[in-house]
Amino acid sequence: MLKEIKDWSEYLSIPEEDVALKQIRDCTNTGYPAGNESFVMRLEGLAERILMPKSRGRPRKSK
Question: What pTM was estimated for this model as a whole?
Answer without folding.
Answer: 0.57
